[in-house]
């Protein structure tokens, strides 16, 4: 029988992170699931029959101070924001590039068995779109990092789902439109389909080595 695994999630309060946490807590292959969070987790929203959950509230601006938590089998990074929510380009880059890049460095330093993070369909360091440019630069930085085993970027399209206290009418409209166009998005265009958060979460788990 294979040994049980330990997991670490960064960004468990987002759409994908919430779904990923629920899946990991119910997955018999995991013994512990640690979450690094900006604010306390509403544990009543999760089923944790095996008492696996280990929530830790931290300051992400000082992520290096929490490197010991990265000594796990699998690191899942769901950190991310939008340009609108960030308010300016510098803040957006800090969350979507710097925090994730530091997390990957800590996973490498602590010899984590795998590092999976959320990128975006269309990520390209040469893009004229700042969002996609940052995502592409991050992919390049992490994938070129030596001695980081099983690093993988998941590239979802527009997410389908409601975010609490987060008004994104354009994103909701885009998701609805892409759902209507789904029959036409085949072949090379399939990657642009709108996806549900639980699908992204399962794809992240698929990249980890058990």
From TrEMBL:
Keywords, ordered alphabetically: Membrane
Domain NAD-dependent epimerase/dehydratase: 7-122
One Pfam family it belongs to: Epimerase
Source domain of life: Bacteria
Matching Gene3D superfamilies: NAD(P)-binding Rossmann-like Domain
GO CC terms: membrane
Compartments reported by the entry: Membrane
Record-given protein name: Epimerase
Originating species: Alteromonas lipolytica
């Amino acid at each position: 029988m294979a040994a049980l695994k330990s997991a670490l999630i960064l960004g468990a309060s987002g759409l994908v992170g919430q779904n990923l946490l629920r899946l990991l807590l119910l997955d018999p292959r995991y013994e512990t699931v640690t979450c690094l969070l900006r604010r306390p987790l509403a544990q009543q929203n999760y089923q944790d029959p095996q008492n696996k959950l280990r929530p830790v509230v931290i300051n992400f601006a000082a992520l290096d101070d929490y490197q010991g938590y990265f000594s796990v089998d699998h690191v899942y990074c769901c950190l991310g924001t939008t340009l609108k929510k960030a308010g300016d380009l510098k803040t957006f880059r800090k969350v979507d590039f710097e925090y994730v890049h530091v997390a990957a460095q800590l996973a490498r330093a602590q010899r984590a068995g795998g590092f999976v993070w959320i990128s975006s369909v269309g990520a390209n360091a040469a893009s004229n779109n700042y969002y996609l440019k940052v995502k592409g630069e991050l992919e390049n930085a992490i994938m070129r990092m030596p001695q980081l085993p099983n690093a993988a970027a998941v590239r979802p399209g527009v997410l389908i789902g409601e975010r609490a206290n987060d008004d994104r009418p354009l994103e909701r409209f885009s998701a609805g439109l892409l759902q209507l166009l789904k029959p036409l998005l085949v072949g090379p265009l399939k990657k642009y389909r709108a996806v549900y958060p639980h699908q992204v979460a399962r794809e992240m788990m698929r990249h980890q080595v058990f």
